Amino acid sequence: MKVRFIINPSAGPKRGRLAERITAAAREVFLGHDGLFDIKVSPKKGAIAELARDAVRLKFDFVFASGGDGTVNEAASALVGTGTALGIIPTGSGNGLAGALHIPENVRKTVGLLKDGRVREIDAGQACGRYFFSTAAFALEARLSLSYDKGFISRRLRGVFPYAPLALIEYLRYKPQLVRVSADGESFETRPLILTAANSDRYGRGTLIAPEASLDDGLLDLCIAPRVNFARSLGLAGRLVSGTINRSPDLRRIRAREIRLSGMDEWTVELDGEPFLWNGAVEIRVMGRCLRVLAPHPPAAPRPVE
User: Coil, strand or helix: which one is 158?
Assistant: First the structure.
């Protein structure tokens, strides 16, 4: 077994401490077994994908990405369609895909999945020529991500805490535009407050946009909510946190393989926590079971009472 660990030094604990913890956990896994592992620290943005592709070329069995959602996306994108499986050591502020896969945040337990976990195949979404594995957002949620990424508060205070004041500011600023949606042949127009194509059930940190979404069903859940009054918007936010937004009468969900968004010259887009600007129509599609991922076994079903 050959395993590569890639660390994003800007996410989570200091890289020296993290490298030591990964080394100790990996040695425990490899004790008495043939194999090798190495640890690489990404020197810059974009290098994570290069290190992952290099691992594929060298026939590594697993590539662990240690960082947040952006780090995981970069490594996973390089592993799509290969035999090398993705492992995740979640050290970011969102950890969306890790949460959807029920991967523990404890380094020892996460690396220990090499012994007691399983490799499963999951879908990948594509939008704007890039992969996403959790969510692709195109309305207020994307604007909020961009504000968080560039904001004065979040540059000084990382984590989930800056989101509340930023969400209020962006909500008050946001003016929904008319969007034309085509999803597997069904077409309509909307002015969305929320417009997200979900491969997994969540954005991150337990914020569930599509509680019934599946990572391996070959479908995306397109979740749309219109601009509503402030009280109902607060209700939507509460349901995102409580995992019950699928029960909201203000949410429309469409399950589709191919989606097209048009009507705007410029979009604010967020894929797996990484925001950017995009010009022109947006083409979205799903690729079925194209990424191998190391994850825990599902919990055993409770035994019936006799």
Answer: coil
